[in-house]
Design a protein that fits this description.
Blueprint (H helix, E strand, L loop, with lengths): L1 H14 L21 H10 L1 H4 L14 H15 L10 H17 L4 H6 L7 H15 L1
Helix pairs in contact: 5-7
Amino acid sequence: MKKTLLIFLIIFVVIQFIRPQRENIPVDKELEIKADTKVMEVFQKACYDCHSNTTTWPWYSQIAPFSWAISSHVIEGRKALNFSSWENYSVEEKEKKIKDIYRTVYVAMPLQSYIMAHKEADLTKEERTFIRNWTGVRAK
């Protein structure tokens, strides 16, 4: 039993040296998405950690294997949609991303794993409807 625990401890220490990418790219405010204050508040509380260059990296994002999962989610989230570089998207890309927001705000976003650690990101039905209404107006 002691030998098994020692092996797990050694593995745990060793994996701490495998450091994933964790960076926040400087934000040019001219490229950031523009929306009214309420929309921005909802985006910032529920979306920005994975979908912007202003991720707030929690303390546990320093500890493997959590660091790997969190970093992967942020990298993939930024690839899918990055509010910090919104103005770099073409008109067609913006329309597609608006439609994606419309579809996912009720179904998949924010991720349940994120909500478990960030209760404030759990959008109310009213906030989800508000964002959906905003995207519906934008998509037209």
